[in-house]
Design a protein that fits this description.
It is a single chain. This protein has two domains: 4-224, P-loop containing nucleotide triphosphate hydrolases (Rossmann fold, 3-Layer(aba) Sandwich), CATH 3.40.50.300; 237-364, OB fold (Dihydrolipoamide Acetyltransferase, E2P) (Beta Barrel). The chain is α+β, with helices and mostly antiparallel strands and 391 residues long. The protein is built from nine helices and 20 strands. The two termini are 33 Å apart. It has helices spanning 43-51, 93-103, 108-121, 137-149, 167-184, 195-201, 219-224, 229-234, 367-370, and strands spanning 4-12, 18-27, 32-36, 58-63, 66-67, 78-81, 155-159, 187-192, 204-209, 212-217, 241-250, 253-258, 261-264, 278-283, 289-290, 299-311, 315-322, 325-332, 342-348, 353-356. Bound molecules: adenosine-5'-diphosphate and magnesium ion (MG).
Length: 391
Amino acid sequence: MAKIVCRGLTKRYDGGPPVLHPLDMDIDDGEFVVLLGPSGCGKSTMLRMIAGLESITGGDLAIGDVIVNNLPARERNVAMVFQNYALYPHMTVYDNVAFGLRRLKVPAAEIDRRVREVAAMLNLDALLDRKPRSMSGGQQQRAAIARAMIKTPQVFLFDEPLSNLDAKLRAQLRGDIKRLHQRLKTTTVYVTHDQLEAMTLADRVILMRGGQIEQAGTPSDLYHFPQTLFAAGFIGTPAMNFIDAVVQRVGDACFVEAQGQRWPLAGPRFAALHHGQAVKLAIRPNYLKVASAAEEPGTLRLQGKVELIELLGAEALVTLDFSGERLAALVPAGDLPELDNVVTFQFKVADLHIFDVQTERNVSFPVHQNTRITFASPAHQETGVQGAALH
Ligand SMILES: Nc1ncnc2c1ncn2[C@@H]1O[C@H](COP(=O)(O)OP(=O)(O)O)[C@@H](O)[C@H]1O
Ligand SMILES: [Mg+2]
């Protein structure tokens, strides 16, 4: 097992534009880190550089205490699992799993013991004589993981390993991978574009965007304290609601005005807002509730016309038309509003985030929350990317 340290790591392919900008990253020994981000943001490139499958353009990469920039892949003692199962089709599961150890000339009895040990951990015992084509995608991917595990690598790398599986198998294998990590505690870097996978698996999520780190933190940090509009829109399902608004200051009082509605905002959280500032208000669908009869302290209200109701099971996703802006609310299925009715909803001010439209940064954190967050890259320079609907 080993920690991974990147300092000023950069990547260009064949003199092309930078794919990874100078990037600092620390992954602790035994940690399960998920690199999350939209397609093309550089996740696989990063992973392949750790694996030694891709050259490093600039900066340093260390695994354990060794700078590995020029160390060939086979000498790094890392194992990688890809999206496509990468098993030898003509070999049985047993032979596929044993392959790496046979190449190292490990004695047969030792190989047998270890194959059976990892097979047991991944529920492959009954499948050892099978060939890949007679197995389901989930079974094949478990065999691929077993094959990667057998050499007891110091680092596990996964590149979207569940993408080819259907939803049920994905959930099952996600659990298997998590349990495996709890047992082995091998340092793991796992790449995915699926925020749910990231949230459920990770000790720490590193959210990437355009070859840079947007925000890094625990899943809970990213969910509750998104630093940027992008992080707010990318994390959480159903996705965050955004409402365009303008700040108004009248004497000591602070308001935001959106769609002709004026909401008061009191407290030190909002001290940095200035009159005329264009902002986006952000509220998660699960925090938007059908309003109680009497107004509750610390809440704000809005009215919306119920456009769509999608039953999810115990809850329904209700889409509202709030003066032309579409908002989503997660509502208990037993307490559904009527379609086409105008309904009053409420949310707690404490659950509201405010982002500056210009800088795209969260401007509503209390100071003590701000300091909890590991934030790695400067404010994003790119424009034109809105937080919502980025998946
Ligand atoms: N072999 C390659 N040659 C040139 N460009 C590449 C190569 N591999 C990836 N890229 C580019 O690098 C960027 C990041 O790609 P990648 O790391 O695969 O992203 P992700 O895994 O996040 O989807 C993309 O713009 C992609 O087109
Ligand atoms: Mg990729």
